[in-house]
Amino acid sequence: MTKLKKAMTAGSSVLLLLGSCVYCYILLNILSSEAPTNMSVPLQPVKPRVKHDVTPEMELAIQRMEGKPAPEFSASDGQNVMHRLATELIRGPIVLVFIKEGCPCSIAAQPYFERIAHAYSTSVQFLGVIDGSPEVARAWGEKYRVSFPILADEKLSIIRDYNIDSSAHVAFVKQDRTLVRLWPGFSKAMLAELNVTIATTTYSRLRQVNLVDAPSELTTGCPFDL
After folding, report:
1. How confident is the model at residue 45 (pLDDT cuts 50, 70, 90)?
2. 208 Cβ neighbours under 8 A, 6+ residues apart
3. Fold of the 56-201 domain
4. Does 16 have pLDDT greater than 50?
5. 73: Cβ–Cβ under 8 A, 6 or more apart, which residues?
6. pLDDT score of 76 more than 50
7. Mean pLDDT of 133-157
8. Is 224 in contact with 165 (CB distance < 8 Å)?
9. Which of 25, 86, 107, 131 fits a 20 to 30 Å CA distance from 74?
10. Residue 220 CB-density burial (10 A; 0-12 exposed, 13-18 middle, 19+ buried)
11. Where are the domains of the chain?
12. Which residues sit opposite 74 in a β-bridge?
């Protein structure tokens, strides 16, 4: 009887442990399903409803900017923190992503920029520039789960200084303030080039970034109201 009691006690303990594990598993699933959206996880890419082609005028505007000192700026982000180019460059190179509120192309491009920003988070700083107030910048960043600051450019002063006429433009500024590269839109090849440019400029290991769903042709965004 003693052996039988011990066996029954051991069996009860095992069942109790298994029951506790099942309970914890169910509880975790319930909590995770009710938890707020994780802001660190970018949205999945979506294709823009309208395709905007890159024009010769855009290409010419880029040629005028590349290789020259990047225009200085000072602007507040969605958290009311001021950002000045000269100060930000002390930390390292900068990637500027130009965003237009309500532009499907900006929304479609953001997950790719988020992936690259995450891959090189210790090597380069990403900054968004949006055509709106700090409130607009904050709302856009929260809605599309942007991990980097978005600067409010309500009067389009930064956009004009960088000779940008539409969203989804991207600028890469070296630490010596040289505007090394300016892309008039995004595509799989452009994103791969941005990836390589960051790695080579910062002497970092080239990261593998998922660009499978990126458009094959260079696609620019909606025009700014200049």
Report:
1. low
2. none
3. Glutaredoxin (3.40.30)
4. no
5. 83, 84, 85, 151, 157, 158, 161
6. yes
7. 96
8. yes
9. 107
10. buried
11. 1-35, 56-201
12. 84
Whether the CB-CB separation of 105 and 222 falls below 8 Å is answered with yes
Q: Which residues contact 174 (CB under 8 A, 6 or more apart)?
A: 93, 180, 201
User: What residue type is 77 in one-letter code?
Assistant: D
In this prediction, residue 51 carries a pLDDT of 59
Calpha distance 124→132 (Å, rounded): 25
Q: Please state which of the ranges 19-28, 52-61, 206-215 shows the lowest mean pLDDT.
A: 19-28
Residue whose structure tokens are 């823009």: 48
Q: What angle do CA 75, 80, 84 make, to 5 degrees?
A: 30
- pLDDT for residue 61: 76
- The amino acid at residue 97 is V
Report DSSP letters for 57-108, one per residue. Answer: HHHHHHHHHTTSBPPP-EEEBTTS-EEEHHHHTTT--EEEEEE-TT-HHHHH
Token readout for 170 is 């991207």
Q: Which residues contact 146 (CB under 8 A, 6 or more apart)?
A: 110, 114, 128, 140
Q: Please tell me the distance from the alpha carbon of residue 79 to that of residue 83, in angstroms, as a whole number.
A: 11
